[in-house]
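W.,

You were right to be curious about this one. When I first looked at the sequence I had no strong expectations either way, so I just let the prediction run and decided to look at it fresh. Below is the sequence, 187 residues in total, followed by the output.
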Amino acid sequence: MIPTSKPPTLDELERQLTWLSDYLDSDDSKERQALEAMLDKLMAQIEGKLDGYIAVIRREQVAADTRHAEAKRQSDAAKVHQNNVARLKTRLQNFLERREAQLGREGRVIRGFYSKVSLCQNGGKPSLWLAPHLKLERVPERYVRITRELDEDAIRADLEAGAESICDTSGLPFAQLLPRGKHLRIT
């Protein structure tokens, strides 16, 4: 097997480009022609490397999109099964509730060949009903909880209006706008 050299990485190509750029201002015309030829060769390598990166990125994106689509399909199929389980449990519970109404406590349990089903009382705190027309102003203070939260829209508006940062009551800054991130656009 013939050993092959690894192609240069993008970082290595960038270093070579930086090195060449430093020497392109040579006064010697033959040296400058040689450097420009090296630059042309290097740019061709960079373009090839770029095309390779883009090909891998696109291939990985297609694979990711395919996996997401398959995950959605599987999730939708699981929801169908969950809905079937809920529907069947509801029918079985309704049956046992009617049976309990007819037979009393004995109607809460039924046995099959392989299983036993019991109608049980839920545990935990009992559900709380609140009148839909309830007005908070008319409820005694004892039953009202007031919460405070930051108004991020107001903070952002002041910062966008020119404030460098927002300070608390003791003068310590607690908010500032961060620089926007960057992303690639591949066309």
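Here's what jumped out at me. The chain has a mean pLDDT of 91. And, maybe more interesting for your project: Helices lie at 10-23, 29-103, 152-160.

Coffee later to discuss?

I.
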